[in-house]
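Appendix C: a fully annotated inverse folding record. The material below is reproduced so that readers can follow the format used throughout the book. The structure is listed first as tokens, followed by the designed sequence.
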């Protein structure tokens, strides 16, 4: 059972289990810049896919670079998803 009860509208309040609460708890002065950087990185990173995909993923290095870029993009999406909320 959770120690936090839902609010009257059914949503759970922001706490340490959400990305916003956790980031504020760990690095309070850097939370907003980290979130902003993550958000804009998630917007820009897909443009780096284009040259990799245009050339093809013929080598293990190219495939690894693509998968690494995809992982970084997913992480940036997760961390930056609550930017400007």
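Designed amino acids, in order:
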């Amino acid at each position: 059972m959770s120690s936090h009860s839902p609010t009257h509208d059914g949503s759970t309040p922001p706490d340490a289990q959400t990305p916003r609460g956790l980031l504020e708890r760990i690095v309070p002065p850097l939370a907003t810049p980290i979130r902003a950087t993550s958000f804009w990185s998630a917007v820009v990173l897909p443009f780096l896919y284009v040259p990799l995909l245009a050339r093809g993923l013929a080598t293990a290095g190219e495939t690894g670079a693509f998968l690494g870029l995809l992982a970084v993009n997913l992480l940036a999406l997760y961390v930056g998803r609550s930017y400007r909320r």
